[in-house]
Amino acid sequence: MVLMNSKLIALCSLSFFALVQVQTGYAQHSSGRLQASAMYSSDNGGYVDAEHAYYRAPLRKSKVYADYIKAGAGKEDYYIVIEKSKYSLAVYSASDELLVTYPVVFGNDDLGDKMCEGDKRTPEGTFYITGKKKHKLWDKYLTLSFPNEESYKKFNERRADGSIPASASIGGGIGLHGTWANDRVAIDRKENWTSGCVSTKNCYIDELFSYIPIGTKVIIRK
């Protein structure tokens, strides 16, 4: 009887320990956003916002970034590097210092270079911001200088070697923009949903729109 009671006590202890572990794990998970909010408040804006902190999006150098905003930086003070393989848009100062990064998604899931109109691929190369406007579907829109001379050169070479049909068109209308009003989760899931543009959450495109001037260089690479 003593042996049976000992086993019963041991079993109950293990069950209680497992329950505590589950409850603790649940509490840690469910409080993640609260912890992120506290983190955002305590680090003086080291993340774009609390959600940025929660998803562990890369940090901005907040003091440097704030100085640039206060100084009213122009097109020569920034450049943007978009890396499709990393689903990342990074803003650098003219002195090559990383200021902030944002999560982004693209068009075609293969992440290849744009070949022709209709392939839903995001073009690679060096472009410039040519316009800024509010968008009725995707919050805000920064137009890119696609197609440019580099784009036409690649397009003509591919058409000449048969990589694309002779009747193909190069396409256009490529830019940086937000998401549908309630579809920001597509960015978290890395869902490539555009027709070739670069998309980020509306809160992030709002920030880019506020300080990135027309004329800013944008480098897109694999």
List the keywords:
single chain, L,D-transpeptidase catalytic domain-like, alpha+beta, 7 helices, 222 residues, globular, 20% strand, 8 strands
Short description:
This protein is 36% helix and 20% strand. It is built from 7 helices and 8 strands.
Protein model, in words:
The chain has 222 residues and is α+β, with helices and mostly antiparallel strands. The protein has helices spanning 2-30, 32-42, 50-54, 62-70, 149-160, 185-188, 202-211; strands at 78-83, 88-93, 98-103, 125-135, 139-144, 175-177, 198-199, 217-221. It has two domains: 2-30; 74-221, Beta Barrel (L,D-transpeptidase catalytic domain-like), CATH 2.40.440.10. Strands 3-2-1-8-4-5-6-7 form an eight-stranded mixed sheet. A hairpin with a 4-residue loop joins strand 2 (88-93) and strand 3. The chain is globular, with a radius of gyration of 24 Å.
List the helices and strands and how they pair.
Layout: H1 2-30, H2 32-42, H3 50-54, H4 62-70, E1 78-83, E2 88-93, E3 98-103, E4 125-135, E5 139-144, H5 149-160, E6 175-177, H6 185-188, E7 198-199, H7 202-211, E8 217-221
Parallel strand pairs: 1-8, 6-7
Antiparallel strand pairs: 1-2, 2-3, 4-5, 4-8, 5-6
